[in-house]
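Weekly structure sync, notes
Attendees: PL (lead), two postdocs, one rotation student
Agenda item 3: pending single-chain targets
PL asked that the sequence for the first pending target be pasted directly into the notes so everyone works from the same version. It is reproduced below exactly as submitted, 524 residues in total.
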Amino acid sequence: MTEYIVLGIYLIGMIGIGVYWSKKTKDSEDYLLGGRAMGPVLTALTLQSTSMSGYMFMGGPAQSYKEGYFTLWYAVGDGGGAIFNVGILGKRMRRLSYILGCLSPIEYIEARYPGKVTRAIAAAIAVCFVYGYVLAQFLSAGKTMHALLHIPLPAAIIVGAGVIVFYTFAGGYLAVAWTDFIQGIVMVLAMVVIFVLSWGQVGGLTGLNEALTAIDPTYTGMWGYQNMYEGQWGVVAGAVGIYLIGYMGLPHVVIRHMAMEHPNVAKNTVVIATVYNQLFIFVPYIIGLMGIIMLPNIDDPEMVVLTLAYELLPRVLAAIVLVAIMSAIMSTADAQLMLMGTMLGRDIYQRYINKDATDAQLMNVSKICVLVVGVVSVLVALIQPPGVFQIVVFSFSTLGSAFLPSYVAAVWWKRANTTGCVASMIVGTIVSIVWEVAGLATTLGIHTFFAGVVISAVVFIIGSLIGKPPAQEIQDAMDRAACKTKIPAGFATADFKELAPETSGVISFLKESDYMEERGFMPV
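Predicted structure, written out during the meeting:
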């Protein structure tokens, strides 16, 4: 009964957030990007909680339980993921998307790489593989509630997914960001408490290593349990790189840069997100290692975290851990569902069906798309398609391979053009699909993500060198995104004594505030 009460309070709270922000959302920019008003703390937590998903509570510990210390390669990459993601894209992407007037990451791709087919290809890839994410998160939410609360699976899927769909539909990006903020705090506190208690049980690092060595020395080796990946440096590179740089290719993650209040928010966001990562990223994998010792006979390694919670914590606190698992799932699902609404409304409806759609029409269509995608996902999840959890990893690799080179080059390489972008998206997607279907990761010892991104990047460079350079206005916009465009000399040295008081005040404000810098002009 305790679990039902705690989870019920939590779900009602999420619904309340959706209702509250539905009243604050006035236009499409509010609904799709939160009015570009996200500060550093909110940006950092929504960025990281969106990236984590239920994998960090279930998949990560289970993988560590099976493979030993090898899985820390994933943590090593993920620990620096925020630095790469926000440091490379954050400030410049925020500024360039504003200059180009973009509200979605797919619209941004078309604006930076103009072409008749650019948005069509980008939207098709994103809609297809982001939908895989949404479906998997809905099913995992239902399975979690079914396994832990013994609710019939169909009812669990409908309840879990229904709450996510409601607050995303009602409150848009603002509701998603604030629920992610709360969920991010719940997630890290629950995980750290379990880690500290388990750490004492196994005798710290020394006790952990001695116990693992006694069971099987390969648990503590760099190649995984029974040296399963021995000599496969391509797998190691993929394990490190997939979370180190992979987030820069995920549309539902990079849209967080576009929603920042100001480009300079990126500075503090890097610090906050990196600190959050160090508290959270390594812990799940280490808990999985401790589970080998503390739970040697567990039937399902994905239940390591929750099982330890019920063994080490009072029941009410263990119920909060259940809420933390649901938070991890929901924080990813709502972001992807919101992105689906954005892409279907902004990138398909407004771009190809009704180019003259009003702001109110765009917002309403995006809301309807969120609702429709949510309902369809619930219906498909009820069928329980096989291998849905594998779809998550596959979708991650494919999205990263398709989009990462284009997003990075968009703000860092003036020569990057439409030819390179389109070729990279197509080839990156094909390589990921072929690599996965043919099982080449196992055959060649090279991770799907690593192969996809490298080949996609090479194709991008070749295509950009062959194709025509971007138009001058695009290059000028890149200079402004890099804040290399100087404020006109006359404006910078204006003699205030010769101007009317009102004009003098306006110029003083523009020079002393962030207004000009946000629009890509160098500070005076």
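Discussion points:
- The chain is about 75% helix and 0% strand.
- The chain has a mean pLDDT of 80.
Action: rotation student to compare against the earlier draft before next sync.
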